[in-house]
Amino acid sequence: MLNLNELTQALGDLEDGLVMDLLKEFVATNPSEAEALEAVAACQAGMAIVGDLFENGEYFVGDLIFAGELLTEAINVLKPSLGSGDTKVMGTILLGTVQGDLHDIGKNIFRSMAEAAGFEVVDMGIDVKVETFVTKAQEIKPQIIGMSGVLTLAIDSMKDTVDALKEAGVDSKIIIGGNPVTKESCTLVGADAFTTNAAEGIKICQGWE
Question: What does the alpha-carbon distance between residue 87 and residue 182 come to, in Å, rounded to a whole number?
Fold first, then answer.
């Protein structure tokens, strides 16, 4: 039987070989969907450890990226045991790095963690134009819209995008993330929440459900 605590700690310690060995042995036992969901939860708990260590300065951005990739791999190993995809979807998140910004590391970590948490994520990539956000939001009607940016100019793009979304009547919750984002800029942009940490961002999104 899979030791969930061992799996959580292995992911938190970024022991990729051990994580994969544990999960492959587990999947070979033909676990039930409920058991597979427990394994996903254990992986998510490991990601929370990574997030805490990052906040405390013990892990760095490279570790976060690695953890995000490891989590994605872990979920892929578990997918065959998770049934026909009729697991409860938390909601849909429309995600993108705003116009004028080409950074996607933080966005990709957030996407991996959101998918692992049960959200369906539509990722539009980098340098996403204001009108692209609006058109896609009207098309898929996401519960949450996530905007990422690393450059200071991204704040202006976020504000332009939020203004356009509201003008178009889109009523999704909006979370913004990235290095330049602060409480003040969140208010300026008109977003519902902000984060500089992917793990914290996921908790905020889960709280909206």
Answer: 35
What pLDDT does 88 receive? 59
What architecture is the 91-208 domain classified under in CATH?
3-Layer(aba) Sandwich (3.40)
Compute φ and ψ for 145, nearest 5 degrees: -120, 125
Would the CA dihedral through 59, 61, 65, 71 be positive or negative? positive
Tell me: the pLDDT tens digits for 14-37? 999 999 999 999 999 999 888 988
Superfamily of domain 4-81: Methionine synthase domain (1.10.1240.10)
Tell me how far CA of residue 170 lies from CA of 7, 67, 95, 144, in angstroms: 40, 33, 15, 10
Digit-coded pLDDT (tens) for 77-119: 988 887 655 455 679 999 999 999 998 878 888 887 788 778 9
Full-model pTM: 0.68
Domain boundaries, the chain: 4-81, 91-208
Determine the Cα angle at 203 with ends 199 and 206, to 5°: 135
